[in-house]
Amino acid sequence: MEIERTVAGLRRVVAGWRAAGLRVGLTPTMGALHAGHLSLVRVARAQADRVVATIFVNPTQFGPGEDLAAYPRDEAADAAMLAGAGCDLLFAPTPEAMYPPGFATEVRVTGLTDVLCGARRPGHFDGVAQVVTKYLNQAAADVAVFGEKDWQQLAVIRRLARDLDIPTEVLGAPIVREPDGLAMSSRNRYLCADERGKAAAISRLMREVIGRLRDGALAGPEEERLAAALAAAGVDRVDYAEIRAGADLERRVGPAREGDRVFVAAFLGRARLIDNMGIWE
Ligand code: AMP
Q1: CA 72 from centre of chain
Q2: Which end of the chain has fewer beta carbons closer than 10 Å to its terminal beta carbon, N or C?
């Protein structure tokens, strides 16, 4: 597996592949890789002849007081995992290569970013939209794969690719979970043993809510019940526990409808964990 650190280097390799008639897949990450990331590489591999993974802890998507400095970084281990999963090229740029002096361009997707993580992390999705627009332009891939773990992010990326006429096809890949149901996340590394034990309650309680919604329970009261159950299970702070339409993130109040999902963000110690599940998936 090759490693490139400049946009020009990335473009040179991809141009060679395209000249040979090969299809190119892209999977952006922030590193600290786990089996969830590798599943994206495999989905890309199934869709393309060559796969580019990116590792870049994008500073513009972190707010003041968030975990930018502490975010886990281990490029050597990540590179070995990517090579094992069939990745052909690792693009691991420096912050200067991504944001040269004088960088002044913002990308904002409105509406979709007003709720859930967008409401709790001001500016977060502006940073995501900015860096992902750059990746899509840099790699000029045929297909780019993002995890459903970050459902709102996936919706934002689909919208920006459509709105800005970016020709890369955006694909979602299912959430990969630990055996006890916890959604895999780089931030799970922050959990101590006690917190890790409690973290399993998030997906378990979400599944319980889904069972009741399928039986006709109303979304509004179920949101309150879920937040209370998460607190009772030892979660330090519930950021949100909401039921929304998967496509446009419209809030559901009454009975759940086709395509609706349960969304949770919760703090355990210093880890902010997010999860989501389709009600009829
Ligand atoms: P991150 O490194 O956390 O920015 O994530 C990079 C990509 O991996 C994003 O598209 C995430 O949605 C995806 N991802 C992270 N965790 C998982 C998971 N447990 N299952 C599937 N995809 C994931």
Answers
A1: 16
A2: C
Q: How far apart are CA 261 and CA 279, in angstroms?
A: 5
Residues framing ligand 1 (Cβ under 6 A)? 29-30, 36-37, 39-40, 146-147, 149-150, 173, 175-176, 183-186
CA-nearest residue, atom 19 of ligand 1: 184
185-237: pLDDT as tens digits: 999 999 999 999 999 999 999 999 999 999 999 999 999 999 999 999 999 99
> How far away, in angstroms, is 31 Cα from ligand 1 center?
10
Q: Active-site positions?
A: 37
Q: CA dihedral in degrees (134, 42, 93, 129; nearest 10)?
A: 30
CA separation, residue 267 to residues 127, 249, 277 (Å) = 22, 22, 18
> How much is the pTM?
0.98
Which H/E stretch holds residue 139? helix 124-139
Which protein residue has the closest C-alpha to ligand 1 atom 13? Answer: 147
> What's the gap in Å between 36 CA and the centre of ligand 1?
6
What pLDDT, on the 0 to 100 scale, is given for residue 71?
97
Q: Are 31 and 186 in contact (CB under 8 A)?
A: yes
Task: Compute the half-sphere exposure of residue 93: CA atoms within 13 Å on the CB side of its CA.
Answer: 23
Kindly provide the residue ranges of all beta strands, DSSP E only, lying in 125-259, ordered along the sequence: 143-147, 169-173, 237-245
By residue count, the chain amounts to: 281
Count how many Cα atoms sit within 13 Å of the Cα of residue 262 in the half-sphere of its side chain: 31
